[in-house]
Design brief:
Layout (H helix, E strand, L loop, with lengths): L1 H6 L6 H10 L9 H11 L12 H11 L9 H16 L3 E6 L3 H4 L18 H10 L4 E7 L33 E4 L5 E4 L25 E5 L22 H7 L4 E7 L1 H14 L3 E10 L3 H13 L3 E3 L5
Helix pairs in contact: 9-10
Length: 317
């Protein structure tokens, strides 16, 4: 019932009415399953007019989402909800690119990812990202930055500042950088230990000088609480507090989110998961990312695809 009430807040318009009428073949004022299937076939086709194949079960699932009262038909009011929440999103996307943590410390500083197992060079993301920013007209551009206080919980140097939980796999005495410990809390939380990096207002936290900064773009700061880390640009690692990114996307009516940056298998992968869960059509820009561990990078790609993100190279946009 809540969803029906929500859809009634939208206003009917000529384009929506014309679309409904065009697919209501029997002129009974409803779209049955076959008529709704024709809507989907009109939406899902390539530039040559070839319809993408969709399983009947998938079509049925979509139909049932918009058949709000589950009577087997989509009436005009239900189609209004479908029009605003789905069809307009497909035919009139609002796109944003999110460039994650292209900061000095990850490229040539204290957490230089070229020293990690994958031996990726973070500076390699800058050229394809800059090319995209020059050639693609995104509706919004966001840059995220790790923005840690000097006493941040993730820093190996700060391990002694907080009590360890009895379940911690390593102790104060034998802990090393890149180990995972469990802090007592509250809340009890596991934390990977990193070298001190991206400390607020230091050179290491700055975006790399060669990265193009677009006019009217927005910077999102994460990991700026001492007591909890934030890999995702959406949330802290315990999903207790959202960053400002969530409200920024909503204010700009973003539908499609293009994601890239450093590190592929940490902050980029976690952000992609949250983007999908938040309902954004999510595009992972493979050649605009560099990471830490090759196996984990491949897992990130597979998980993204399995969760219905799209993984492409920048030259495919």
């Amino acid at each position: 019932m809540d969803r029906v009430i929500e859809c009634e807040r939208y206003t009917f318009n000529d384009s929506m009415n014309a679309c409904f009428t065009a697919f209501d073949k029997d002129r009974d004022g409803f779209l049955n399953f076959e008529e709704f299937s024709c809507v989907c076939k009109a939406l899902f086709r390539n530039d040559d007019g070839i319809i993408y194949r969709m399983e009947d079960s998938e079509m049925k699932d979509i139909f049932e989402i918009f058949d709000l009262n589950q009577d087997g038909y989509i009436d005009l009011n239900e189609f209004l909800f479908c029009w605003n929440k789905w069809i307009k999103v497909i035919v009139r996307p609002v796109s944003a690119i999110l460039i994650i943590d292209v900061q000095n410390d990850f490229i040539s500083g204290s957490l230089n990812i070229s020293n990690s197992p994958a031996q990726h060079s973070g500076i390699e993301v800058i050229e394809p990202i800059n090319r995209l920013l020059d050639s693609v007209q995104f509706d919004a551009v966001f840059y995220s930055l790790d923005w840690h206080p000097s006493d941040h919980i993730s820093f190996m140097d700060n391990l002694q500042l907080r009590p360890l939980h009895l379940t911690s796999p390593v102790s104060y005495e034998n802990a090393q950088v890149y180990d995972t410990v469990v802090f007592e809390g509250p809340p009890v939380m596991s934390q990977k230990l990193w070298p001190k990096h991206c400390v607020q207002n230091t050179w290491g936290a700055e975006l790399h000088k060669d990265l193009r900064i677009v006019q009217n773009s927005t910077k999102i700061y994460k990991g700026n609480s001492s007591e909890i880390d934030s890999y995702s640009v959406f949330w802290d690692n315990m999903k207790l507090v959202q960053t400002s990114f969530c409200s920024q996307l909503q204010e700009k009516n973003i539908t499609d989110l293009y994601v890239c940056g450093i590190a592929y298998d940490v902050c980029v992968g976690t952000t992609v998961n949250d983007a999908i869960a938040s309902g954004y059509r999510t595009i992972l820009l493979d050649d605009c990312c560099r990471g830490i561990d090759k196996n984990e990078i491949e897992k990130t790609k597979s998980n993204s695809i399995n969760n219905h993100a799209v993984v492409v190279n920048s030259n495919q946009l």
